[in-house]
Each structure stands twice: as C-alpha cells, then as structure tokens.
Amino acid sequence: MPCTVITGAFWGDEGKGKIISYLALKDKPDICVRTGSVNAAHTVWYKGKRYALHMVPSTFIYEKCRLLIGAGANVHVQKFLEEVELTNVKDRIGVDRQASIIEEKHSIQDKTSAHLRGLGTTGWGVGPAIEERVRRTAKLAKDIPELQPYLTDVAGEVNEALENGKKIVLEGTQGFMLSLFHGTYPYVTGRDTSASAICSEAGVGPTKVDDVLIVFKAFITRVGAGPLPGEISKEEAIKRGWFEKAAGTGRDRRSAPFNFELAKKAVKVNGATQAAVTKLDILYPKCKGVRNYDELPEDAKKFINEIEKQTGIPVVLIGTGPDASDIIDRREHV
Ligand code: IMP
Ligand code: MG
Q1: Which of 15, 125, 137, 190 has most Cβ atoms within 10 angstroms of its Cβ?
Q2: With a 6 A CB cut-off, is 174 part of the ligand 1 pocket?
Q3: What global pTM score does this model have?
C-alpha cells in the first residue's frame, strides 16, 4: 500500500484471491480495480463460504471498499450481474465506460476453433473478444443498457484517490507465464498479465505504484496445454496432495515442483518488491493454520528462505490454509 499491484508468478491459480481477500480485511483498501476477464476464477473463502469470482474484485469482503473494473478489462455482462447480486455490492461497484464486452459469440468462436482448442483455452472467448477489440468493432460497457447504473471513469477515480492518499489494490489475473508477451507462447492467454499491463488496464501510471506483490504457490500448477518444467504424473500429484481441479472450468490441473529459475524471472520482469507464498501447508502439513512465522517447522522456513535468497525480495505473506485469515503476515508496517 498505498498502491499495490497483485500479480501471479506462474500459470495462474497461485491463490491471488486468497491473498487479496486477506489484504481487504487487514489493510482496508479504499479501492480495488480488477483487470483481465471472465476466464479467471479467484477463490475467496470467507466465513465458511466459498466464492469463485470471475468479475467482482476479491476485496468485496471489506464492505467499505469501492470495487472497480478497469478500461482494459473485458466484461461478461451476465456473469457480472450474477456476481453483483451474489456478493451484494450493487452500491459500490463500477465499470469503466470503455471496458469492452465479451459476448456469447466469442465463447462459441473459442470453443469451435481447432487452434484454440489445441491450446486448451478456458472456452470463455477471451481471445476472440480481444481480437474484436483490436479490430475496433467491440461493444463497450457504455453501449450496454444493463451496465448504465455502474458506469464510471476508473482511471479518473483511482488517480484522484491516489492524490488524496487513499489505499489502492490493482488485482491482476492469471500468471506471468500465461502472458501474451512473456509467457510460453502460443500456450498463453490473450493478454499481457504482467504488473505493467495490470497498471495499464486500470489506468495507473508506473510512477504511481508503491509495491508489486507477486504471488507464488508452494508448488506449480497449470491447466491447458503447453510446457510445464518438472511436471509430475497425476498419480504422483494425488500422492503428494498437490492434485487440484480448476476453480473456473473444473478441469484437472497439471502440477510440478516450485521452480526457482521461473520465480527469479517473474520477479525481475514484474519488478516485484514483495512476495506471497500460498499453500505452504500442502507442502509441509505441519504448517496448517500456523499464523506465526516462528512456529513453522524448520524445513518450511528453509524453503521460504531459499525463495528470498534466490529472488532477492522478502516473502511477506504466507498462506497456511484456505480461509482469508489462515496467513502469516511478516510485514513490518502493520
Ligand atoms: P484463455 O485465457 O481462455 O484463452 O486460455 C489460454 C490459456 O490460459 C489456457 O491454458 C488456460 O487454461 C489458461 N488460463 C486462462 N485463464 C486462466 C486462469 O485464470 N487460471 C489458470 N489458467 C488460465
Ligand atoms: Mg483461478
């Protein structure tokens, strides 16, 4: 804070939703801007309830936070309206007038394109929707009657809030290795997912950002096709407790051990200043529910130290369970 970008380090599903929901409760940000599109599901566990949000920012659990969707985002109108209802945020959510719209036809194009099927896309239609935006034929939020009550100038709101010393979270989606520019092309998503792109989608200049918090999971997963260094079999993943299904599409996630080389690259290109590591309790079950760093077992501490040593940035948040509050917070200023 005051302006923190949250970005994923690998192939998405690092647990950004969990980290952001913790920050919502702890730091009480005034505004959170979500970027990206409906293909990402951010999981938030709060008061025993699980939310897998495709559109609404993950800070919704702090009821004073203004929730925004940036000009660079693609809005799925039906999903947006459904989630606004579900999370009861009608009075505090806004959509940039210039956010573009992802339509049913884009999903059909995605699902019927042999090329996109081969890449293992989520089928939501993000690639085709962005193609249409690039052709400058896309519908924008301002063209949609149901979105009229929510329209705003996100860049205007955020920059004014920054001038007034307010706290802002910029919520990235997917992970660095799925970046259209920096990831495992062509096995990537339809947009750049790096910290700079998150700022650009929200309308915040690079000099306005205080921290880039990069989120690592204690092991790596990916859905869809494309390279995954060190990949283990599904049987082995089940044995280790690493096997997951995608929050959005229900597909099996492939898995691999933590990769320090990729972590170093992600930290460098995102300009990350801080890191979070989620699911440490899956790698080291004795960590489950621990909220104090000193209580971690030695092998878990060694792993965290190694990440800090190799990437050169501090691991400030450590996830030890699914709830927003299952976390070790090592930040000095709180
Ligand atoms: P698309 O973003 O739907 O075009 O899919 C392109 C690639 O990105 C596929 O490998 C998807 O599985 C992956 N992908 C897209 N969104 C997410 C996400 O939120 N989490 C993990 N993988 C994703
Ligand atoms: Mg996800």
Answers
A1: 125
A2: yes
A3: 0.96
